[in-house]
TrEMBL record:
This is Enhancer of rudimentary homolog. It comes from Caenorhabditis nigoni. The lineage of its organism: Eukaryota, Metazoa, Ecdysozoa, Nematoda, Chromadorea. Coiled coil: none annotated. Keywords: Cell cycle. The gene is Cni-F35G12.11. May have a role in the cell cycle. InterPro entries: EHR_sf, ERH. Belongs to the E(R) family. SUPFAM superfamilies: ERH-like.
Length: 114
């Protein structure tokens, strides 16, 4: 993950309705990725009161169902923000989840308890 400690703005549109647009302001890319995972976990908790197990493919499906998602990451060298796409975000979520899981066989599963 590049620029993990750079100011990051997360832009999300959950549906085709313009009033579904929202944004979040984060101190780092990692914080923004955590916010995405927390949003997905909240989505899951609304569907089930029991602890839920999920893998990265389900996070991808969730991200793909959003009307739009992108990030703007501050580049200290240029003093400008760099835009990042849904595909880039998905790759970063995968790398973050892979790094946090203790399953070397590649079947990254996460259990969320509520």
């Amino acid at each position: 993950m590049s620029s993990t400690s750079s100011h990051t703005v997360l832009l999300i549109q959950t549906s085709s309705r313009l009033d579904s647009r929202t944004w979040g302001d984060y101190e780092s890319v990692t914080d923004a990725l955590d916010a995405i995972c927390n949003m997905f976990e909240e989505f899951l908790s609304k569907k089930s009161a029991c602890p839920v197990t999920y893998d990265v493919s389900q996070v991808y499906e969730f991200l793909d169902k959003l009307s739009d998602i992108s990030m703007m990451i501050f580049n200290r060298e240029t003093g400008q923000y760099i835009g990042r796409t849904r595909a880039w975000i998905k790759q970063q979520v995968y790398e973050m989840m892979r790094g946090r899981c203790q399953h070397p066989e590649g079947g990254e599963k996460v259990i969320v308890g509520y």
